[in-house]
Amino acid sequence: MQKLLKVKKWGNSQGIMIPKELLKSVGVNDPIGQELVVSINEKSQIVMQPKKSSSRLMDEFGYLEDQKPAVGLREYDWGNPRGKELI
C-alpha cells in the first residue's frame, strides 16, 4: 500500500497524519497510545513497525513478575461466609 502524505507544522515540530488503513496494514489495529519503532534503512527509506511486545497487559504490569511479596504478607482468613457469597 502506498499513500502520498504531506508534512505539516504542529507547534514547534513537523508531523504527518497516518491514515488508519495504512496503520492496519502494518499490524497496528488499535493505534491510540501504541508505540511504533521508526527507522531509516540503508536506502534512506522511513520504516515503521509496531513495537514488539508480548501483550498490553504485560506491557503495563510485567514488571510485577520480578517482585517478591513483602515479608509477612500472607492470606487472611475472614471466617465463614455469612450471606449469599459465591465461593
- Using the CA coordinates, give the radius of gyration: 23 Å
Could you tell me the number of beta strands?
Answer: 4
The best one-word shape is elongated
With helices defined by DSSP (H or I, 4 residues minimum), what is the helix count? 2
Sequence stretches where pLDDT stays below 50 over 5 or more residues: none
Strand content: 15-25%
| N-C termini distance | 53 Å
The structure class reads alpha+beta
Oligomeric status of the shown chains?
single chain
Task: Strand order, main sheet: write it out.
Answer: 1-2
Average pLDDT figure: 81
Helix content: 10-25%
Strand count, sense and barrel status of the largest sheet are:
2 strands, antiparallel
Order of helix and strand elements from N to C terminus: EEHEEH
Explained architecture:
- By secondary structure, this protein is an alpha+beta fold.
- It has a domain at 8-66.
- 14% of the residues lie in helices and 18% in strands.
- It contains 2 helices and 4 strands.
- The strands form 2 sheets. It has a two-stranded antiparallel sheet with strand order 1-2. Strands 3-4 form a two-stranded antiparallel ribbon.
- A hairpin with a 2-residue loop joins strand 1 (8-10) and strand 2 (13-15).
